[in-house]
Amino acid sequence: MTSIRSRCAIPAFLLGTFLLVFAVIGGVIPAHADQSQSFVWVADTRGDANNDLTNWTVLTPIVDSILALTPAPKVVIFGGDAAYRGGTANLNDFKALFTNRLDAAGIPSAYAVGNHELYTMNHAPHLDDQALSRQIEFQGLFNGSWTQNGPGASYNKLAFSFNFGNSQFIIADSYLAIADGTAPVYGIDATQQTWMQGLLANSKAAHSFVFTHIPAYSPTDPTANENMKNTWQTITTSGTATNTNASILFAGHEHLYYRTLHDGTYEVLAGSGGAPLGCESGESCDLHPVYPSDVYALKYNYAVTTVNGREIKVSVFDQANSSIDIFNFFDNSGVSNTTINNTIAINPDPARIISLQASWPPATIRSATAQT
Fold it and tell me: In sequence order, what are the residues at sequence separation of 6 or more whose Cβ sits closer than 8 angstroms to the Cβ of residue 322?
């Protein structure tokens, strides 16, 4: 007598195939873990005077929107100029209503220092009379939870990198103080650029994102800003045929939104999470897209970037969560990455799931069950 068990038996390897496919279709097991994620960039939340330090009216609803994102972002990066002037007391106020709210929700944050963090109560010519002291105060308050792997001890909590999923994140200081009473030079110094070059040349990440305060391109000039030309060259040429250049440079400083593409790398200048919209004193406000594909808006803003395998989507919103800009691109950098390429399905991948469902059960299982 033949048992029901023997008549219905499915070979073990086929049963394993069934369970694996069922898990992928059901979304239980991702095809490749940590290939889908998101992160947020927001910068320049300062007020416009010593008695108007941070624009909470704009920043608070932006933080509310970030906390409401589902799924939660892997990390939020702040791009500098939190308050009109630096100092422990002012930055602690910002920390309480920004960093600490994110921490309470289990969302880590990183901070790319700006120029206003280093300013004192006084205005020019004394803006930088305590620049190094203010920088040290900043270092005592932020970025302490990240591994400090930057170019040297003096750059601790100012320049460092970390990885999430398939992506590399590089934080750089573009307003580095070297002494009190000496105005820092705008731009990323040579020491940091050498360090960044090594990170990009040796990375196996599918994407590399660079975050700093000072932009390389702005809607006032069709060429790279003089103090960031070398940095732009570094992040767009350090990769090799088997490694990665920067996918996007995120910047702030200018209180507007501007997106541009040069040398295969995007710049997303999202520079007002509350800072006064417009131009710095003495600058022309005749702003407009420099190139036909550029996008420019004089609006408060923050940017949400979603990574799904090699696909990147950047969505930019104002403080009321109205859309300012959305763009998508397939990132061709990181070509030697061994865990993801454009032929491997990333979960969830609707096309892949539909294909699996249409072809189920596989011919080998159909053949095996037909014989019982």
Answer: none
pLDDT band at 287 (very low <50, low <70, confident <90, very high): low
Domains of the chain by range and CATH?
Answer: 4-29+351-370 (no CATH), 36-330 (3.60.21.10)
Q: Retrieve residue 37's tokens.
A: 């994620």
**Total length of the chain:** 372
pTM score, whole prediction: 0.80
HEC assignment per residue over the chain? CCCHHHHCCCCHHHHHHHHHHHHHHHCCCCCCCCCEEEEEEECCCEEEECCEEECHHHHHHHHHHHHCCCCCCCEEEECCCCCCCCCHHHHHHHHHHCHHHHHHCCCCEEECCCCHHHCCCCCCCCCCCCHHHHHHHHHCCCCCCCCCCCCCHHHCCCCEEEEECCEEEEECCCCCCCCCCCCCCCCCCHHHHHHHHHHHHHCCCCEEEEECCCCCCECCECCCCHHHHHHHHHHHHCCCCCCCCCCEEEECCCECEEEEEECCEEEEEECCCCCCCECCCCCCCCCCCCCCCCEEECCCCEEEEEEECCEEEEEEECCCCCEEEEEEEECCCCCCCCCCCCCCCCCCCHHHHHHHHHCCCCHHHHHHHHCC
Q: What is the pLDDT of residue 283?
A: 56
Residues 6+ apart with CB under 8 A from 3: none
Structure-derived torsion over alpha carbons of residues 110, 116, 120, 125, reported in degrees to the nearest 10 = 150
Q: Quick one: which of 335, 339, 313 has its CA closest to 326?
A: 313
Kindly tell me if the per-residue pLDDT of 230 is higher than 80. Answer: yes
285-301: average pLDDT: 81
- Distances 130 to 90, 159, 177, 251 between C-alpha atoms, Å: 15, 20, 9, 25
**Nearest 10 degrees: CA dihedral of 322, 315, 25, 336?**
180
Nearest to residue 176, comparing CAs of 143, 202, 138? 138
Q: pLDDT tens digits for 343-371?
A: 443 333 333 233 333 333 333 333 333 33
CA distance 161 to 218: 25
